[in-house]
Amino acid sequence: MPFNKDDFSACTSILAGKKATIDGSTIIARNEDSKSAWPKHMQIHAHKEYSEPQKFVSPDNGFKLSLPTVRAKYSATPEWTDKFGVFEEDGINEYGVAMSATESAYANERVLGYDPLVKDGISEEAMLTVILPYVHTAREGVNRLGEIVEKYGTSESNGVLFSDQNEVWYLETGSGHQWVAQRIPDDSYAIVANQLAIQEIDFSQPNNFMYAKNIRTFVSENHLNPQPNSFNFRNIFGTHDLSDEIYSTPRVWYGQKVFNPEIKQEPMSQDLPFIRKADRLLGLDDFKYVLGSHFQDTPYDPLGFGTEEQKHKFRPISLAKTQESHILQLRPELPTEIAGIHWLAMGVTAESIFIPTYAGTTDVHPAYKVGQQKYSNDSAYWVYKLVGVLVDGHYTELQGFLKDAQKNTNIALSNLLHHSDQEALKLTGTKCTEYLTQQSIKMQQLGLENMQQLISELVTASTDLSVLNFKTDANL
Q1: What is the pTM of this model?
Q2: EC number(s) in its UniProt entry (predicted)?
């Protein structure tokens, strides 16, 4: 079968430092794209302490790792089945560390010839599970994953996002045992789309770069650097082919176009920078817009004004294969359990709603715990997915219903979250935890109720859009 990147998990990521956002939050965000009908759940793992180390064994490739005896509480979004691995993907732990894993990437044949991927090495499905519950800072998360990659190898090339209230980091694995990580400058952002993205590594700045211990020796001894006067990780380890220009770079181009409309670039450019400073402070709505985007206001929008060739030339950011989209926001000057917000949009981002869940919560709405491969109306994933299916059938006629519901729900959630923040700050200990859990479930319920109401409106309106409809000539 010909290689097709759509056969793999293929996501779009955004990272932003605390001085790049309007309220001083650090933000990491990503669309998890895999299959058009593959439900996700949401789970809160309780803090646990064991008498002896636990062993993780991947149900996918057999990767094994001994785990520490203390496992922190953390949120996660696992698959509906663990047959192919757990794929917990994104979450915030009790220490205020956020992690999103992974952004699938592709290394070139030249480097893989000297350091192949390791069949039973760590992969995407295991990363969050064996890293997030055991780290106290974003930097510690980078270091833990890097050490595992060096010791056990990795079976994939990936990008992994880490943050805490002070720092945002992006780590990339470029071959079986080689990796680098860069701290996103506080006043900057980065957008990544299925390519190795990190560029120049400054080995004299340990506060801003981390990397495999022998990476310079590995590259030098095997003559892998096409530009020996610099160390550009993307150029040494990454790919630069036509599929990148059609599949990956246009998404980075569009995200940078939204955040920096004053900069003129080409969507197929192989030279888009990894780090950018936006033309303004970025709000939560900016991240939601990009994650839900499909080249709006350009000829490349599948729902837009371009030619048929233009409308299907590039792979959009939001598409039918999105399982869930998340924004992990760590707000400043708040207690850890209140500061962290796990925003989660189930299904297709453009046709869904980001629902906030506090990092301090101990449980989620029952609808977020269920859902199998076939549709069922008790599953949060399938409720949001059904909205998209109904709108898709007659997008021109029905998009207004969707946009109104999204707008009204976002406003209601914002008001409820603001009120909840104020009340939670008056509480401590168990009372605070119970309140945060209650309010998180209340916000999840609000989203579900509004989507059920929207479904009712869409079904009703769709009854007049049948191809079997017939309009009688008024003159008859």
Answers
A1: 0.97
A2: 3.4.-.-
